[in-house]
Amino acid sequence: MSIKENINLEKLPVHIAIIMDGNGRWAKKKGEMRIFGHKNGVKAVRDCTEACAELGVKFLTLYAFSTENWNRPKFEINALMELLVSTINKETKTLNDNDIRLTAIGDLESLPKSCYRELMNAIDKTKNNKRMTLVLALSYSSRTEIVEAVKNIGEAVKEGKIDPKDITEQTIIDQIYTSDIPDPELLIRTSGEHRISNFLLWQMAYTELYFTETLWPDFGKEELYDAIIDYQNRERRFGMTSEQVKN
Ligand code: FPP
Prior knowledge:
With 247 residues, the protein is of the alpha/beta class. The protein has helices at 23-29, 34-55, 74-97, 113-125, 142-158, 169-173, 221-232, 242-246; strands at 15-19, 59-66, 100-105, 132-140, 186-189, 208-211. The chain has one domain: Undecaprenyl pyrophosphate synthetase (3-Layer(aba) Sandwich). Farnesyl diphosphate (FPP) is lined by residues 20-25, 34, 38, 41-42, 45, 62, 64, 69, 83-84, 87, 136, 191. The site of farnesyl diphosphate has 19 residues, from helix 1, helix 2, strand 2 and helix 3.
C-alpha cells in the first residue's frame, strides 16, 4: 500500500513550493559532472508535478534558477538553460494533455533569448488549462521582487494615485509576481540545507517548512506524500493559541 492512502484530501495544501537542491552533490557522488545531476533532476520535476496534479494540489512552484545562480560557472549556466529549453519544449504537450497551466516568476527578460521565447510559447499554449498551475521561479530573487513592488508603489504615490496612508498588505500583494497566486502552505527543501535562499520571502510568512536529506534527483512521489502527511499533522496557529484553533 502506498502512503498516498494516508493523505487527507480534505486538508491538502492548495500551494506547494519546492527548493530543488542537491543535484550537484548527487552527480558528484556518482563521479559525474554537475549537469548530470540537473538532467536527472528533471525526472523528479515530472514526478512531483504529476503527483500534485493527481492529488488535486492547485499550485506547485519550483525554484529552478535564482538570480544568485548567475554567478555559477558559465558552462553550467549554459547547460542549465539548454536543459530548461529542451524540457519545456518536450513537456508542453504533456502539460496540455493533463490540463496543467505553466507560468513563471522572476526577472524573465534576463533569460537567454531562446529560453525566454520557449518559456513564453509554453505559457501561451497552456494558458487556458485549469487543473493545476505549475510556476517556475527563474532568475528569481525575492528581495528584487519586493524592491520592484516598492518602486511601483512609490511611482503611484508620486503620481497621486495612492495616498501613503492607504497602503496595506494588499497594496504590496498586488505588486509582487505572485499577485494572482495564493501563498504556499508548504515549502519543501531537499538536500539537508535549512535555508530559504531568497525564495518567496513575503509569501512564506506562515508557510510550514519541510526539510529532507534526500538529494533532488532522488526525490519522488512517495517522499512528496510523506511531506504532505507531515504538513497535515501540524497545527497551524497563525499566532493564536492551540485552544483557539481547536475551537
Ligand atoms: C540545485 O542543485 C538545482 C538547481 C539550481 C537547478 C534545478 C534545475 C533542474 C532540476 C532542471 C530542470 C528544471 C525544470 C523546472 C525543467 P545544486 O546545483 O545547487 O546542487 P548542489 O547544492 O548539490 O551543488
